[in-house]
Amino acid sequence: MSRLKYLSAYSEQTQSQVAQLIAQDKLATVLNSRYGKAHDYRTDKALYNYVQELRSAYLRNAEPVNKVEYDSKIHVINHALGLHTAIARVQGGKLKAKHEIRVATMFKAVPMEFLTMIAVHELAHLKEKQHDKAFYQLCTHMEPNYHQYEFDLRLYLTHLDNGGSKLWDASSTASN
Protein backbone atom coordinates (compact mmCIF):
# COMPACT_ATOMS: atom_id res chain seq x y z
CA MET A 1 0.00 0.00 0.00
CA SER A 2 2.41 2.67 -1.17
CA ARG A 3 -0.53 5.08 -1.44
CA LEU A 4 -0.52 5.17 2.37
CA LYS A 5 3.04 6.30 3.04
CA TYR A 6 1.92 8.71 5.79
CA LEU A 7 0.26 5.81 7.61
CA SER A 8 3.04 3.22 7.32
CA ALA A 9 3.55 3.08 11.11
CA TYR A 10 -0.09 2.19 11.71
CA SER A 11 -1.56 -1.31 11.86
CA GLU A 12 -2.54 -3.24 8.76
CA GLN A 13 -6.17 -3.04 9.93
CA THR A 14 -6.04 0.76 10.13
CA GLN A 15 -4.37 0.98 6.73
CA SER A 16 -7.00 -1.33 5.28
CA GLN A 17 -9.83 0.85 6.65
CA VAL A 18 -8.23 3.97 5.16
CA ALA A 19 -7.70 2.20 1.82
CA GLN A 20 -11.38 1.29 1.85
CA LEU A 21 -12.35 4.94 2.47
CA ILE A 22 -10.14 5.98 -0.45
CA ALA A 23 -11.62 3.32 -2.72
CA GLN A 24 -15.14 4.49 -1.80
CA ASP A 25 -14.07 8.14 -2.27
CA LYS A 26 -15.15 8.92 1.31
CA LEU A 27 -11.91 10.09 2.95
CA ALA A 28 -12.62 13.77 2.23
CA THR A 29 -16.15 13.40 3.61
CA VAL A 30 -14.82 11.90 6.84
CA LEU A 31 -12.30 14.71 7.29
CA ASN A 32 -14.84 17.41 6.47
CA SER A 33 -17.28 15.95 8.99
CA ARG A 34 -14.64 16.03 11.75
CA TYR A 35 -13.25 19.48 11.07
CA GLY A 36 -15.00 22.65 10.10
CA LYS A 37 -13.23 25.62 8.71
CA ALA A 38 -9.62 26.64 8.31
CA HIS A 39 -7.91 28.70 11.00
CA ASP A 40 -7.20 32.35 10.31
CA TYR A 41 -3.55 32.63 11.37
CA ARG A 42 -2.44 33.54 7.85
CA THR A 43 0.51 35.85 8.55
CA ASP A 44 3.83 35.12 10.18
CA LYS A 45 2.99 37.66 12.90
CA ALA A 46 -0.33 35.98 13.71
CA LEU A 47 1.38 32.58 13.77
CA TYR A 48 4.14 33.93 16.03
CA ASN A 49 1.57 35.36 18.47
CA TYR A 50 -0.36 32.08 18.54
CA VAL A 51 2.74 29.99 19.22
CA GLN A 52 3.81 32.43 21.94
CA GLU A 53 0.39 32.06 23.59
CA LEU A 54 0.84 28.29 23.66
CA ARG A 55 4.39 28.63 24.99
CA SER A 56 3.24 31.01 27.73
CA ALA A 57 0.42 28.70 28.75
CA TYR A 58 2.43 25.46 28.90
CA LEU A 59 6.16 26.16 28.78
CA ARG A 60 6.71 29.33 30.78
CA ASN A 61 10.17 28.23 31.92
CA ALA A 62 11.32 27.11 28.48
CA GLU A 63 13.76 29.13 26.44
CA PRO A 64 12.13 31.86 24.35
CA VAL A 65 11.17 31.35 20.73
CA ASN A 66 12.73 34.14 18.71
CA LYS A 67 11.06 33.54 15.36
CA VAL A 68 7.98 31.73 14.09
CA GLU A 69 7.04 31.77 10.44
CA TYR A 70 5.51 29.91 7.56
CA ASP A 71 8.15 28.46 5.26
CA SER A 72 7.45 27.55 1.65
CA LYS A 73 10.70 25.56 1.48
CA ILE A 74 9.48 22.90 3.89
CA HIS A 75 8.19 19.98 1.89
CA VAL A 76 5.86 17.52 3.52
CA ILE A 77 7.21 14.91 1.14
CA ASN A 78 10.34 14.88 3.32
CA HIS A 79 8.13 14.10 6.31
CA ALA A 80 8.46 17.60 7.76
CA LEU A 81 5.36 19.50 8.82
CA GLY A 82 7.37 22.07 10.67
CA LEU A 83 10.91 22.58 11.91
CA HIS A 84 12.41 23.66 15.19
CA THR A 85 15.94 24.99 14.97
CA ALA A 86 18.29 26.24 17.63
CA ILE A 87 21.05 28.46 16.33
CA ALA A 88 23.91 28.54 18.84
CA ARG A 89 26.34 31.41 19.05
CA VAL A 90 28.77 32.91 21.51
CA GLN A 91 27.67 36.22 22.95
CA GLY A 92 29.73 37.93 25.65
CA GLY A 93 31.59 34.75 26.55
CA LYS A 94 28.32 32.77 26.90
CA LEU A 95 26.77 30.28 24.53
CA LYS A 96 23.28 31.44 23.57
CA ALA A 97 20.69 29.63 21.50
CA LYS A 98 18.20 31.35 19.26
CA HIS A 99 15.11 29.18 18.73
CA GLU A 100 13.07 29.32 15.54
CA ILE A 101 9.95 27.46 14.50
CA ARG A 102 8.95 27.14 10.88
CA VAL A 103 5.66 25.68 9.68
CA ALA A 104 5.11 24.46 6.12
CA THR A 105 3.17 27.05 4.13
CA MET A 106 0.58 24.48 3.09
CA PHE A 107 -0.73 24.62 6.65
CA LYS A 108 -1.96 28.20 6.28
CA ALA A 109 -5.30 26.74 5.28
CA VAL A 110 -6.06 23.79 7.54
CA PRO A 111 -8.31 23.39 10.59
CA MET A 112 -7.13 24.94 13.84
CA GLU A 113 -6.60 21.48 15.34
CA PHE A 114 -3.94 20.64 12.76
CA LEU A 115 -2.07 23.91 13.29
CA THR A 116 -2.21 23.37 17.06
CA MET A 117 -0.81 19.86 16.70
CA ILE A 118 2.12 21.13 14.61
CA ALA A 119 2.81 24.07 16.96
CA VAL A 120 2.66 21.84 20.04
CA HIS A 121 5.03 19.36 18.39
CA GLU A 122 7.60 22.01 17.58
CA LEU A 123 7.27 23.68 21.00
CA ALA A 124 7.83 20.34 22.72
CA HIS A 125 11.28 20.31 21.14
CA LEU A 126 12.22 23.24 23.40
CA LYS A 127 12.21 20.79 26.32
CA GLU A 128 12.59 17.37 24.69
CA LYS A 129 14.90 16.97 21.70
CA GLN A 130 14.11 13.33 20.85
CA HIS A 131 10.79 11.82 19.81
CA ASP A 132 10.57 9.62 22.88
CA LYS A 133 7.99 8.90 25.57
CA ALA A 134 8.71 12.15 27.45
CA PHE A 135 8.33 14.13 24.23
CA TYR A 136 4.90 12.70 23.44
CA GLN A 137 3.79 13.07 27.06
CA LEU A 138 4.61 16.76 26.81
CA CYS A 139 2.71 17.01 23.51
CA THR A 140 -0.40 15.43 25.06
CA HIS A 141 -0.06 17.66 28.11
CA MET A 142 -0.27 20.71 25.84
CA GLU A 143 -2.93 19.18 23.57
CA PRO A 144 -4.81 16.16 24.97
CA ASN A 145 -6.05 15.19 21.48
CA TYR A 146 -2.55 15.41 19.99
CA HIS A 147 -2.47 11.83 18.67
CA GLN A 148 -5.93 12.05 17.09
CA TYR A 149 -5.05 15.31 15.36
CA GLU A 150 -1.76 13.86 14.14
CA PHE A 151 -3.57 10.83 12.73
CA ASP A 152 -6.20 12.98 11.04
CA LEU A 153 -3.50 15.23 9.59
CA ARG A 154 -1.87 12.10 8.19
CA LEU A 155 -5.26 11.17 6.70
CA TYR A 156 -5.41 14.60 5.06
CA LEU A 157 -1.90 14.22 3.66
CA THR A 158 -2.89 10.78 2.36
CA HIS A 159 -5.96 12.36 0.73
CA LEU A 160 -3.76 14.94 -1.00
CA ASP A 161 -1.17 12.32 -1.94
CA ASN A 162 -3.86 10.30 -3.68
CA GLY A 163 -4.85 13.21 -5.90
CA GLY A 164 -7.47 14.76 -3.66
CA SER A 165 -8.05 18.48 -3.64
CA LYS A 166 -7.47 20.80 -0.70
CA LEU A 167 -10.41 20.59 1.67
CA TRP A 168 -10.05 23.97 3.33
CA ASP A 169 -9.02 27.29 1.89
CA ALA A 170 -8.14 30.78 3.08
CA SER A 171 -11.65 32.08 2.38
CA SER A 172 -13.25 29.62 4.82
CA THR A 173 -11.72 30.94 8.01
CA ALA A 174 -12.88 30.33 11.52
CA SER A 175 -12.82 32.95 14.22
CA ASN A 176 -10.20 32.88 16.96
Key attributes of the depicted protein:
alpha+beta; three-stranded mixed sheet
Protein described:
It is a single chain. The chain is of the alpha+beta class and 176 residues long. Helices cover 42% and strands 16% of the residues. The chain has 6 helices and 3 strands. A 3-stranded mixed β-sheet has the order 1-3-2. A hairpin with a 2-residue loop joins strand 2 (82-91) and strand 3. The chain is globular. It starts with 11 loop residues before the first helix and ends in a 15-residue tail after the last helix. The model has no long low-confidence stretch (mean pLDDT 88).
Q: In terms of topology, how is this protein built?
A:
Elements: H1 12-23, H2 27-34, H3 44-58, E1 65-71, E2 82-91, E3 94-104, H4 112-124, H5 133-142, H6 146-161
Parallel strand pairs: 1-3
Antiparallel strand pairs: 2-3
Helix pairs in contact: 4-5, 4-6
